[in-house]
Input
Amino acid sequence: MKTHLLKKNFTGLVMALLIIVPLLNLYSQVPGNVLSGSSMELADEPAWTVDIRHRDDLGDIPEYEFGSDKGCTECVGNGLNVWAAGAGYTNIIFYQEVTLKANSIYKANAAYKSLDEMAQNNWVQLKLGLTEYPKHENDGIKLMGTNAWLGCGAIGDGMLSDIACDWATELAGGIGWLAPDTMGNEFTAWFAIVMGMWTNEETGAYPYEYIIDEVVLVDSLEAASASVEPREVNNSASLLNYPNPFTEQTTLIYDIPARAQVRLTVYNLMGQEVATLYEGIREAGTHRTELNASAFNNNVLICKLEYDNQVIVRKLTMLK
Output
């Protein structure tokens, strides 16, 4: 293993910012992120279990270092450095147990850099396992990944979502994975970073080296709720809908404590506004608005009520 290195000294504006703002695990605070140890610093290593799988006869064992200062364009501080001689079939898996919610859409991403332009037949994948952690490149649910054989990842420095070319069909374009409702309202799963390569004695060795940082698995429902900036509101205010769940139409019922400018909108799980139901002055009291969601492709929507510089949000569930 390489010697763990200390953080680089930051100068200029970055130093000034660090004086003002304590150094934090920034990506662990991304709204909806369900992972621990996202920043891949040395202190984050206990959050990850590591499994190395390789062919014993070739003796090509990948190595790794949390808290490496090699860096990448999208890295924040230090990251995870993984390298191998590339002389066989290997997988190195970094995984952790996560709790997922039924009917939520999960999206993964990471900062990524390939440090070896000669890399071939290798892959970096962000995956989920529902019964156990994914153990190789063809195991589990593939959220996104690189595959040098398919033409991406051998050279790259940026967010994995911008570099990836290896998606499951239903995840193409980063739509995300919809958690099933057949395993309970909440259930245990395993998130994994799977890195590996394949070669043989005839094709020769293809060394590879990567930096991975700021790894997130985002619950899009929570992220969407955070994107509309809910705040603590007066206890006399409320936002409900009936029925909920509903098939095509539901009635939104909201109370405001005083006459105010009101805006009632609907968002999808990507945080995009899909409908404006009302915008204008409302008197104090109870108000009702009908929502016909038959034209929407989403099973879950977020309703947002803004009034008097305050916000209330509510989850709307549509049955299809």
